């Protein structure tokens, strides 16, 4: 089983809070059993949303992968590194 990602945590937590608040407001529960039931229902809804949400996207093989068909082992020598661009004082145009 995969670990949940940040989006699943965020959506699940938001559903727990919002569903619990909505259930408490709609039912008008004031006693401990009613509040506990609303909290449990909100928690179950949040878990359901987090579990059924699609997980992280799987990696897609790129054509330049070494195990891809048609890729030759000599392609690495042809690659040219990109020019490095700094973000310091050398890139400023004013004085």
What keywords describe this structure?
about 100 residues, mainly alpha, 2 helices, about 0% strand, elongated
Task: Give a brief rundown of this model.
With 95 residues, the protein is mainly α. Helices cover 45% and strands 0% of the residues.
Rg, nearest Å: 26 Å
Question: Please, what is the oligomeric state?
Answer: single chain
Sheet with most strands: none
Tally the beta strands: 0
Order of helices and strands: HH
Strand content: under 5%
**Amount of helix:** 40-55%
Query: Which geometry do the CA atoms define?
Result: elongated
Contiguous runs where pLDDT drops below 50 for at least 5 residues: none
Q: State the helix count.
A: 2
Mean pLDDT over the residues: 78
- First CA to last CA: what distance? 57 Å
Structural class: mainly alpha
Model description:
The protein has 95 residues and is mainly α. Helices cover 45% and strands 0% of the residues. Helix 1 packs antiparallel against helix 2.
What are the SSEs and their pairings?
Layout: H1 6-27, H2 32-52
Helix pairs in contact: 1-2
């Amino acid at each position: 089983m995969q670990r949940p990602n940040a989006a699943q945590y965020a959506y699940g937590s938001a559903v727990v809070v919002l569903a619990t608040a909505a259930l408490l407001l709609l039912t008008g529960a004031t006693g401990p059993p009613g509040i506990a039931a609303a909290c449990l229902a909100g928690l179950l809804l949040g878990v359901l949303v987090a579990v059924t949400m699609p997980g992280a996207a799987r990696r897609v093989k790129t054509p330049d992968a070494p195990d891809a068909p048609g890729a030759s082992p000599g392609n690495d020598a042809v690659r040219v590194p990109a020019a490095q661009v700094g973000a310091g004082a050398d890139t400023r145009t004013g004085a």
